[in-house]
Design brief:
single chain, 284 residues, alpha+beta, NADH Oxidase, 2 domains, five-stranded mixed β-sheet, 9 helices, globular, binds flavin mononucleotide
């Protein structure tokens, strides 16, 4: 793999694709990636499952019509993610699926996280789910159309996709009263910038990080968007997993060694919607 940091900077949601099918070489690489057990395990040990579905005119090989409510155009297939629907299951799913998204981005395959605007029932029929299986998200796959459709541009505008929050809104030193300044973070400037650039449901960017003064501990919080949890699962937990993925991969690339642990430091929350999720602790 090349520089993950560069891939994270490059990735953006693709909603309009070329009509060209994926090359057999790319399909092979995707299938091989998804066969490697290590690629399907989250940082806390849970396992996700993926299915690759190829489509023609929105209809799968099995003849099932798989809709994405017109948001996505000319995609050549889907990757469907399957995971248990539990709190930390969803967090780990975010981590595992985003790692795949970055892999696809590196190959030049366009993707778009889809958690809301697809027909969960028709996908469930396509892949035979067990009692505990749940489809948190899917992504269309294909090659990005160079010229963005007007609709894409409008959607990017409406969801403020190019509008990422500033550092001081997301990152804090020692407690939530103390917004970060760039000088405070030292070597961790790149890992937290990679968190900031991540995709999130409706681009809400609900991740908040407090780091300890010595920068040995980073506490990840979820700033829940009130009334967002309308689909029967908390999609924003996935966003935290995405943040973990970007943070960890950027740390690895910049030779910062650490591990994940759940141990609430007990800081005063930012408000009643902020929830502690997990910490990254430097290995010394
Ligand atoms: C968990 C999750 C669910 C998402 N669900 C949808 C969706 O249902 N439909 C859609 O068009 N985009 C969806 N997105 C894409 C976001 O709108 C997009 O990531 C965000 O606007 C930022 O833009 P970017 O990915 O280009 O950086 C989702 C993203 C995430 C992380």
């Amino acid at each position: 793999m090349g520089s993950t940091i560069e891939i994270i900077k490059k990735r953006k949601s693709v909603r309009t694709f070329e009509t060209t099918p994926l090359t057999s070489e790319h399909l092979k690489q995707v299938n091989e990636y998804l066969k490697v057990a290590e690629n399907l395990v989250g940082p806390l040990g849970r396992k996700a499952r993926f299915e690759v579905i190829q489509i023609q005119n929105n209809v799968s090989d099995k003849g099932i019509k798989l809709g994405t409510y017109g948001f996505i155009k000319n995609h050549q297939g889907y990757i469907v993610g399957i995971m248990e629907n539990t709190k930390m299951g969803l967090v780990e799913f975010g981590y595992i699926f985003e790692k795949f998204i970055l892999f696809a981005t590196e190959l030049g395959i366009g993707t778009c996280w889809i958690g809301g605007t697809f027909n969960r029932n028709s996908f469930a029929k396509e892949i035979n789910l067990s009692e505990t299986d749940f489809i948190p998200c899917i992504t269309p796959i294909g090659y990005a159309k160079e010229k963005q459709r007007l609709f894409d541009k409008t959607l990017r505008y409406v969801t403020k996709a190019d509008n990422k929050k500033a550092w001081h809104e997301l990152f804090f030193k020692s407690n939530f009263e103390n917004p970060v300044s760039k000088e405070d973070v030292g070597d961790f400037a790149v890992p937290i910038e990679m968190v900031r650039l991540g995709p999130s449901a409706s681009n809400k960017q609900p991740w908040r990080i407090i780091f300890s003064e010595d920068k040995n501990e980073f506490y990840f919080y979820l700033a829940h968007t009130p009334n967002y949890n309308k689909l029967g699962f908390d999609m924003q937990l996935i966003d935290i997993g995405i943040a973990m993925c970007h943070f960890e991969l950027a740390c690895k690339e910049t030779k910062l060694d650490g591990r994940w642990t759940i141990s609430d430091p007990g800081h005063k929350p930012q408000n009643e919607h902020t929830e502690y999720i997990i910490s990254w602790v430097a290995n010394k």
